[in-house]
Amino acid sequence: MDVLNLMRRHGIQPTPQRLAVAEHVLSARAHLTADRVWERVRRKCPTVSRATVYNTLNLLVKKGLLRTQILKEGTVVFDSHVEAHHHFVDVQTGRIYDIPWNAIRVSGHAALRGFDVREYQVILRGRRRAK
Known about the structure:
This protein has helices at 3-9, 16-27, 34-44, 50-62, and strands spanning 67-72, 75-79, 85-90, 96-100, 123-126. It is an alpha+beta fold. It starts with a helix and ends in a 5-residue tail after the last strand.
């Protein structure tokens, strides 16, 4: 993925710190917290501040390159998979899995009176079975 050109196409002025954050989070398959991103990016770019990481993550959300999710109580994670999908949270390990949109059918949301449903997702919690 050419993160530099992606940032430019979305009107984001690339700095070395922003680029390091974007490269890490956009290539991650995990649902990372801002502090986790900061810990990992500091290994490559030791001068990056926590504020720069938070600001960059929020800018990437604003530009549609990331989504925020509250999948665990009190914890915001950043998700680079911005297409519609659901989530499964393994309560034993805390790991979050993406579930394809068409794997779960939700019915009845169109019939809710007095509500204008613009989006929804299902969050499943349980334990992942061993393969």
